Structure formats: C-alpha cells, structure tokens
Amino acid sequence: MTATEGPAAAEGPAAAGGGAPATAGGDTPGRSRDDTVATVVRQWRAVHPGLDTGPMEIIGRINRCAALLQQAEDAPLRREGLTRPEFDLLGALRRTGHELTPGELARETFSSGAAVTKRLKQLSERGLVERRGDTRDRRVAHVRLTDAGRDLVDGILPVQLAYETAVLSGLDGPERGELAALLGELLGQLEGRLGALRA
Amino acid sequence: MTATEGPAAAEGPAAAGGGAPATAGGDTPGRSRDDTVATVVRQWRAVHPGLDTGPMEIIGRINRCAALLQQAEDAPLRREGLTRPEFDLLGALRRTGHELTPGELARETFSSGAAVTKRLKQLSERGLVERRGDTRDRRVAHVRLTDAGRDLVDGILPVQLAYETAVLSGLDGPERGELAALLGELLGQLEGRLGALRA
DNA sequence: TCTTGTTACTTTACAAGTAAAATATCTGCT
DNA sequence: AGCAGATATTTTACTTGTAAAGTAACAAGA
C-alpha cells in the first residue's frame, strides 16, 4: 500500500481510484456503509490532489480486512490455547496427511525456519506433535501430529469455518464468489511475480 | 480464516466455495495462475470432505495477499529507514493536517497506546515529530510533524503509490474497480459488525 | 475541600519474530 | 581418503508489540 495501509493506518475512498464502479454490489439499497479506508483516502486526496490514490482502495482495504479478520478469528483459537501461527503449523500437518520436515513446515507455513523451530518446541512440549530423526540424513527431522494434535485440529476446524461463514455473511453468495475469484487472480499474480518486482 | 489462513498458512481452491463463478476475470486466456490457497483448500477438502471450505477462499486469500503486499511494500519504506507502523503514524499526521494527541494517533493508526508511545519516542529522537503539552489539560500531549517529517512523508508517498500501482497491474481497470468495491463492502460490514460478533 | 472515579499517557515485564551466526551433516570432486 | 561447498536446523542477540500496572491530572459530588 501507499502510505498507510498497514494493519495500522488505512486509506482510500469508496470505489473511486481503480477502474469501473462496482460491478455487482456497488450501490444496492442499504449497502454502502462507509469504511475507514474511504475516509483516509479522502484525506490524502485533499492534501495531495495530484496523486492517484487508486491503489489505496485495494491495498488499504486488504490490509485492514486482514487485521480485523485476524483479530476476530483468533478468538476461537485462543479458546484452545493456540495462536494462529501454531494452528497453521498443525493444520499443515493435518491437511497434507503425512510427516513434514521443519523446512517443509516453514515453506508450507510461510514463516522462517527459526520461527518454526520455536513453535515446534512448544507444540511438542504440549504433546501435540512429535519429531523423529531421519535415518538416512541425520540433518533432517520429521514432524508428525500426535493423536491429541490431530483431534485438536479436527475439533477446531469446523468451529473456525462456521465462524468465518458468519463473518462473511454480510456478502451474498454471488458477491462472495466474485470476491474469491478476484482475490485468487490477484494472489496468483502476486505469487508469480512479486519475486521479479522485488529484484 | 478457517484453519490456516494467517499470513502463514493458506487455503482454498480457486473460486469454488462461495457463490457464483468469477464475474469478470474468471476464465480469461492466460489468467488462471493457480494460487497457493487453492492448493491448501483442496487438501482440506480431501481430508474433511464434509466441511464447507468456502470461507477459506476469501479469508485465506486476503491474509496471504496482505502478507505478500506488505513484504513487497516495505521495501520503499525501509530504504528511508522507516517501518510501516512508523510511516502510518507520520501519514496520519500528514493527511489530517493538524496536530494529534497520542490517543488519537493510536485510534487513527489502529494500534495500542503503548505502541504509539514507543514509536513517538523514536520518531521524535529522529527529529520527525515534535510534542507539546496541552496548556489546559496537562495529561494530554499534542504531536505534530516537523518540516523534516513532512518532507519525508511527501517524498515517500508518490513512490509508494507508484509501486502499488505496479503491484496491482496484473488486474485490469474494471477488475480493480470491482475488487475495491467488494472489499469496501466487506470492510464496511466488518467495521460495523465485528464488535457485535465478538460479543 | 476531600475523595471517588475517569481519562491520558507511560512504564514494565514478557512473548514472539527476525537476521545472522553457529552446528552438524551431507555431496561431489580430486 | 580428504576437502570445498551446499543443506537442514538450531541458537543467539535484538527488535517490536502487548497486557497490565503505574503515574498524573482532571471532574464532580458530598
């Protein structure tokens, strides 16, 4: 984002900047609840009328949504004494269905190796994961869920999904589909191209 | 997100879950770059066929996009020796155009008061902000940008916006407009209703 | 005027992540 | 065999955020 769209500051007016007005849910009845980003972008435009604040409308909102969603969704996890990164780690083991090495967990989980090391230590102290050394290559470890770990994940997952469904219930079916598709396209591009941009 | 959509783990298939298929840019020529979330959701569905993984497609992607965007966009800021939260704070002062109290900065910036206190300390040591006590109420302080602070923000902002534009260039104009509108609607709902849900 | 409650901000103790260095082990070549 | 360079993971030192307590100052009623 431009200036202020971290989890912290926000940006941009309603739907101006980018391109076309909303396709589907732009100006339906009770919809247009003005979001914080709209206000922030308005302020920026008043101060710097020349700048194209379009990107703020997307990036600012993504960041702000991510922050709010995370805060909200941490609740069910905390009830079970897990942080999200911890749950992500356990979830990676659960959904792949097999053992993973710390390195694979780091990649799967988009976090650093050092962070994974720390989490594994805690999770294994809690009896949720177990590790075993590779017999061929003694540098590598293999991590697997214990029964308790698997049960914990399986118990939380439906609750989380139900909670998420409730959180998204403000959008109707078609809107959710559109949003998912657009985000998927953006994400695909970001994942494919960001390395290049960064260089 | 459900299980794994923090900045860490991801989720869900392409566009299935939610509702309608993509409105505009669903299956155009070279588009459908498969994103990580799609893979993750596929894995979850294989393990738990009964669960509705729809929310993952949105929430997982928002989180992942936020993580990638943040990493990418930190670059221009770091060049100037700022973290994003620091820039957000300076930006809040710049875009409002007047002094703010620490408390207002915390609200404007969506961060805790303690965090603002720390940042202000560092930023004023660097000569980017100044503080003065309120004469009426000696509990409150007023923070303002120094000239150096203002120049720094004004110098970075265009670079950031240009960078963001480049990052979003994978989407065409109408898609960007749609995405901004949908995110705006979601965010409006989240900001208005999350407190209620949390309760 | 005391004193109770609130507000504004800061401090402290602590949890968690990161980058860079450290360890240990493997691979391929000579 | 022996060594140079890669890999896999952990360790260390440090940064930053948070929650909770602490400090200071205001407001309003008894």
Architecture overview:
Two copies of one chain form a homodimer. Chain A has a two-stranded antiparallel ribbon. Chain A contains seven helices and two strands; from the N terminus they run αααααββαα. Chain A is elongated, with a radius of gyration of 21 Å. Chain A is mainly α. Chain A has helices spanning 36-47, 54-79, 84-96, 102-109, 113-125, 147-167, 173-198, and strands at residues 129-133, 141-145. At the A-B interface, α1, α2, α3, α6 and α7 of A face α1, α2, α3, α6 and α7 of B. Chains A, B: Residues 55-188 form the HTH marR-type domain. Chains A, B: This is MarR family transcriptional regulator. Chains A, B: It comes from Streptomyces pimonensis. Chains A, B: Residues 1-35 are annotated as: Disordered. Chains A, B: Residues 1-14 have a biased composition (Low complexity).
